[in-house]
Specification:
31% of the residues lie in helices and 25% in strands. It has 13 helices and 20 strands. The strands form 3 sheets. Strands 3, 4, 5, 6, 11, 12, 13, 14, 15 and 16 form a 10-stranded mixed beta sheet that branches. Strands 1, 2, 7, 8, 9, 10, 17 and 18 form an 8-stranded mixed beta sheet that branches. β17 and β18 form a beta hairpin. α1 packs parallel to α4, α8 crosses α9 and α11 packs across α13. The radius of gyration is 23 Å and the shape is globular.
Length: 510
């Protein structure tokens, strides 16, 4: 590595990454793949913050065109099919239906925006926009009869928390060390390198790691890291914006999504979710609390219910809600007057050089552009401490994604032939979650009893063991709400049995 072990340092790396969200794990993956020695520390679980609380779309950001964010939209549009090819098990195409609302944006403006959306760049496999008649198309049936015309366009869905876990897995497979439940207590420059003190949140054990370069990708906590860990006062680079969602019993039977306009200028989505529900969101509200304590408010719930009821023929009420979630987006503070207008672009700031110990702070960003952001950060790392391998992630696949983007059904067919005694619904879910690694997980299982203890909803001990061994799962919530969304089906009894099983396997109750 070109530097010695300082006093008190127990390990040296080239790059130390703070934050186990999509940006942090993406940077660790890219850097490890280029040959850097990498360590990443996350104080909670992977994707425990913003990266598991998104609307779960890989999209260009149609509404950003109104704010003339053409570079951001083009970059995001170009990334849709790149990411789909990299992880076709957790990313797949969706068609969105945008009804024309007579009192809001005119039809000509929607057509113009969608023309740009189709042609700004990157679309090869995704189908183009078309106009549909809601009086005759099945997409019109759940809506009030006043909506006549709609525009149908393409974007993609992503299992956001699994995207993070797979980036971390790929980073580790390429040599990175990933530590969850490990907090960075302090980071100071000494003799041209960083001395990073980390603390295991379960045992309290501390360790000092030497690093040639430090990346702060802590998301909503990025300013907190600058103040608490780096010892600087007055850091204010991000604007925290809360986005909340409600999940209801299914509101429509078809597989398309709705992109709705609201009278206040905001937009929201209604998306088929986990096979039996509808996801509605999001809100955009400034937030000044602790990011880890964010929760939907009664006012936000009323807002989303009223917005949905404006379009659907049957009123959507609190009785329809089965789950809610909220997240805090760390948007770069560009001084926008309204939360919905704040930029979704990212800003990367490099401080220092190889002689002093470089620091890269990551502000903002979105799921769709995480790979491009990561690539740019690793290019900056090369400029600061010396380059290694070339860019590679534009053509690389994520674990389990080594099959054609259009070949998911063929993968399911292969699993059904290999495991004829297992429930086809289980095999399809495992294919969606793990791709080709579903075979690695299932191993020699010939029948359901071979999968071990059943916790409900098709979750068995063999899958839990796989998540513990390969995806850093340590708690029932890690499994039920981040590595999967099986918490929507598994009851308290199943959750308690799962928690006890995992505590026994790991050797500690988390």
């Amino acid at each position: 590595m070109g530097f010695g072990m300082a006093a008190g340092v127990t390990k040296n790396v080239d790059v130390f990454v703070i934050g186990g969200g999509v940006n942090g794990t993406g940077i660790a993956r890219d850097a490890a793949g280029r040959g850097y020695a990498v360590m990443l520390c996350e104080m909670h679980d992977l994707a425990s913050g913003t990266s598991s609380a998104a609307t779960k779309l890989v999209h260009g950001g149609l509404r950003y065109l109104e704010y003339y964010k053409f570079r951001l939209v083009r970059e995001a549009l170009e990334e849709r099919e790149v990411l789909w090819r990299a992880a076709p098990h957790i990313i797949w195409p969706l068609r969105f239906v945008l009804p024309h609302h007579q009192r809001l944006r005119p039809a000509w403006l929607l057509r113009l925006g969608l023309f740009l959306y189709d042609n700004l760049g990157g679309r090869k496999l995704l189908p183009p926009t078309r106009t549909i008649d809601l009086a005759t198309d099945p997409a019109g049936r759940p809506l009030k009869p006043g909506y006549r015309t709609a525009f149908e366009y393409s974007d993609c869905w992503v299992n956001d928390a699994r995207l993070v876990a797979l980036n971390a897995r790929d980073a580790a497979d390429r040599g990175a060390e990933i530590r969850t439940r490990t907090k960075v207590v302090s980071a100071r420059r000494e003799a041209g390198q960083w001395q990073v003190v980390i603390e295991n949140q379960l045992t309290g054990e501390r360790q000092t790691v030497g690093a040639r370069l430090l990346v702060n990708a802590a998301g909503p906590w990025v300013d907190e890291v600058i103040v608490d860990a780096l010892g600087r006062n007055g850091a204010h680079h991000v604007r925290l914006v809360k986005g909340s969602h409600i999940v209801t019993r299914t509101l429509f039977e078809h597989d398309r999504c709705y992109f709705f306009q609201n009278a206040d200028g905001r937009i929201f989505f209604a998306i088929p979710y986990e096979g039996a529900f509808t996801l509605i969101g999001t809100t955009d509200l400034d937030y000044d609390g602790e990011p880890g304590q964010v929760a939907i408010s009664a006012e936000e719930t009323d807002y989303l219910l009223a917005a949905a009821t404006e379009y659907f023929s049957r009123p959507v009420t609190r009785d329809d809600i089965v789950w809610t979630y909220s997240g805090v987006r760390p948007l770069f503070d560009d001084g926008a007057s309204a939360a919905r207008e704040a930029t979704r672009d990212y800003v990367l700031k490099l401080e220092g050089d190889a002689a002093s110990g470089p620091l890269i702070n990551v502000f903002g960003g979105k799921l769709t552009t995480y790979r491009r952001l990561s690539q740019k950060v690793v290019d900056m790392i090369g400029g600061a401490i010396g380059g290694k391998g070339p860019q590679w992630t534009a053509t690389g696949t994520l674990p389990g994604g080594d099959f054609p983007a259009t070949g998911f059904d063929a993968l399911v067919d292969r699993l059904e032939k290999s495991y004829p005694a297992l429930d086809p619904a289980l095999l399809r879910r495992l294919a969606r979650a793990y791709g080709t690694n579903a075979e690695r997980l299932l191993g020699d299982a010939a029948a359901e009893p071979d999968l071990g203890e059943a916790f409900g909803a098709g979750l068995h001990a063999r899958e839990v063991d796989y998540l513990i061994a390969h995806e850093w799962a340590m708690t029932a919530d890690d499994v039920l709400w981040r590595r999967s969304k099986l918490g929507l089906w598994i009851d308290a009894t199943g959750r308690n049995r799962l928690a006890a099983y995992m505590a026994a396997r790991i050797g500690v109750a988390v």
